[in-house]
Specification:
With 227 residues, this protein is an alpha/beta fold. It has a single domain, classed as 3-Layer(aba) Sandwich (Rossmann fold), CATH 3.40.50. Helix content is 37%, strand content 11%. The chain has helices at residues 3-6, 18-29, 47-58, 101-116, 138-150, 153-156, 172-181, 206-218; strands spanning 9-13, 33-40, 63-68, 120-122, 162-164. It has a 5-stranded parallel beta sheet with strand order 3-2-1-4-5, with helices on both faces.
Length: 227
């Protein structure tokens, strides 16, 4: 067995955006053999899934899997229903919040990790420069890790499962700097809530604003492709 094959496995959620790309790069730097997982959940555009495939390949994932689950059937979000994406965030949790999305994605990642014999999950949630989603907080990550160890054969049989959120307390500027250090090509990522089929960003939504402010604060050129 080679050194690479002997490395511990991890399932890394890869959405196609800058945060998940940096998370994958961090997981690889920490010595994990990364299995990238994307979820086609009925989001407005497929360009972020195409970006996820590019990122997984660029950053050396040993495989990339896309699982389909249609959250449009329950709606409730501007990303999964015929609701306009706001150009500026208002008070409270924004309409771009997708009900239970991170819980569902991490649950799928957890199932795949059990099949692979992996004890580590990585997700790119962030609670500093973010839109205020409840499932991007440290409390959520800790609660899901507890659930993972209660609800799985692996956890019950003593294989401690860990949920890593390495970006949880980073600013977008810090995320951009870490990504630059680890060789992430941000021009290959798509963060915009309403990117077009080619992945060109609107430049006005909350995701675009946070991304642009992060690059500016980091003193880095913004490689985002705007339409």
């Amino acid at each position: 067995m080679s050194v690479a094959e002997a490395a511990p496995r991890a399932v890394v959620l890869v959405s196609g955006g800058m945060d998940s790309a940096v998370t994958l790069a961090i997981a690889r730097e920490r010595g994990f053999r990364c299995h990238a997982l994307s979820v086609a959940y009925g989001q407005r555009h497929s360009s972020e899934l195409a970006a996820a495939a590019r990122i997984a390949s660029d950053l050396g994932a040993v495989e990339h899997k896309t699982v389909t689950i249609d959250l449009r059937t329950i709606g409730g979000s501007a990303l999964t229903a015929d609701i306009d994406v706001p150009e500026q965030g208002g008070a409270g949790i924004p309409i771009t919040y997708v009900p239970a999305r991170n819980t569902i994605m991490l649950s799928i990642a957890l199932g795949w990790a059990e099949v692979l014999g992996a004890s580590d999950l990585f997700c790119g949630v962030n609670a500093v420069d973010y839109s205020g989603y409840p499932d991007c907080r440290p409390e959520f990550v800790a609660a899901f890790e507890q659930l993972a160890n209660l609800a799985t054969r692996s956890g019950v049989e003593g294989a401690r499962l860990r949920v890593h959120a390495p970006l949880i307390d980073m600013s977008k500027a810090a995320i951009a700097r870490v990504g630059a250090r680890l060789g992430v090509d941000f021009s290959r990522t798509v963060s915009c809530y309403q990117a077009d089929p080619a992945g060109l960003a609107c430049g006005h939504c909350d995701a675009c604003r946070l991304r642009a402010e992060g690059f500016a604060a980091a003193g880095l050129d913004d490689p985002t492709r705007y339409r």
